[in-house]
Write a structure and sequence with these properties.
ABC transporter involved in vitamin B12 uptake, BtuC; about 350 residues
Length: about 350
């Protein structure tokens, strides 16, 4: 009898045992992919993929800037929406910001009378650009009920048009030393990590986070429970726009220039990082930690392809397959949960 009771007790304990967080599986996938490239490196080109600090630093810097965008995109997708405009907002915000950060010694400054301004001025201008774009997205989506795909697609085209119109397609360069120092060295990585930590705490422990998940899980139920869904959606998209502007400031500072083509494809890379990190395209599920791990996986894959000297067009094709695979996995997971 004692053995039976012990067996029952152990089975109850096993049934009540909480499953591993999805982030653990994503981390395991990251380690497996990195080790795979390490093995392939020794087999194919007789070099180490991981034991190369310069390569790892370049990889982390590459994903940090898009990762900032991905933090905002993650919140949008958790609500059940999508943001296709983030890359174009990066472009427009970068160009406008740089035009207020130029030195007086440059004879072709966009605003000759507004050069050598304090660093706070271009930063405020850039953040205002992102806030305005995100606010417009949110208002259109929340109050006209236009699908987020269409609304943000329109913003994507409009923002890219602004980028080309603002300086007639010409690059904007020669920032002040103070502005150039924003993204010097590993500061982009530090900015990304700080933003990720802040929003992980916000999403996990604040009313904003709980409401974001509630809307993504069931917007009607969230509305019945007293959440102002429309106002919250405006806030989420506005924050996503501001984070795109932060990425614009960082990338323009690091490159010491801004041009219309800047930010091209950032929105797709950010969505890929988010989905690879376990955020469901159906909403209601995901985390900033998962997105950070997704960004690292994304960076390892792209860096690994370059390391193995795989042509760029093959890289794009494989990237597409990875995105589709992550979405298929999400669909399968949602079906098992009975959500679709």
């Amino acid at each position: 009898m004692a053995e039976v009771a012990a067996a029952k007790g152990s089975s109850v304990d096993a049934s009540q045992r909480r499953p591993w967080p999805s982030e653990v599986n994503i981390l395991a996938g990251l380690i497996a992919i990195a080790l795979m490239f390490e093995v392939l490196g020794w087999l194919l080109i007789h070099q180490s993929f991981l034991i190369n600090p310069a390569r790892l630093q370049i990889m982390i810097l590459q994903v940090a800037i898009v990762g900032i965008v991905a933090v905002g995109v993650t919140q949008v997708i958790i609500t059940g929406g999508i943001d296709l405009s983030s890359g174009s907002v990066v472009s427009a915000a970068a160009i406008i910001t740089m035009s207020f950060a130029q030195v007086s010694t440059y004879s072709r400054a966009v605003y000759p009378a507004l050069t050598n301004l304090p660093i706070i001025v271009p930063i405020a201008v850039g953040l205002a650009c992102g806030l305005l774009a995100g606010l417009i997205n949110g208002l259109i989506i929340a109050y006209t009920k236009i699908p987020p795909f269409i609304a943000t697609l329109g913003m994507m085209v409009s923002a890219r048009g602004v980028s080309n119109w603002y300086t007639k397609g010409q690059p904007v360069s020669f920032p002040t030393d103070a502005y150039a120092s924003i993204a010097s060295g590993i500061r982009p990585v530090i900015i990304f990590i700080v933003i990720a930590i802040i929003f992980q705490i916000i999403m996990r422990y604040t009313l904003y986070g709980r409401r974001t998940y509630a809307i993504g899980s069931n917007a009607d139920a969230a509305r019945v429970s007293g959440i102002n869904v429309e106002r919250h959606l405006v806030l989420v998209y506005t924050l996503a726009g501001v984070l795109s502007a932060v990425a614009a400031i960082v990338v323009s500072s690091r490159n010491l220039t801004a041009q219309a083509g800047m930010g091209f494809g950032y929105e797709l890379d950010a969505i890929a990082m988010t989905v690879i990190g376990g955020t469901s395209l159906y909403g209601g599920r995901g985390s900033i930690i998962g997105t950070v791990l997704g960004a690292l996986i994304f960076g390892v894959i792209i860096s690994g392809f370059t390391f193995l000297r795989i042509d760029a067009f093959y890289q794009e094709m494989i990237k597409g397959v990875i995105i589709i695979g992550a979405v298929v996995q999400d669909v399968y997971r949602q079906r098992r949960r009975g959500r679709i």
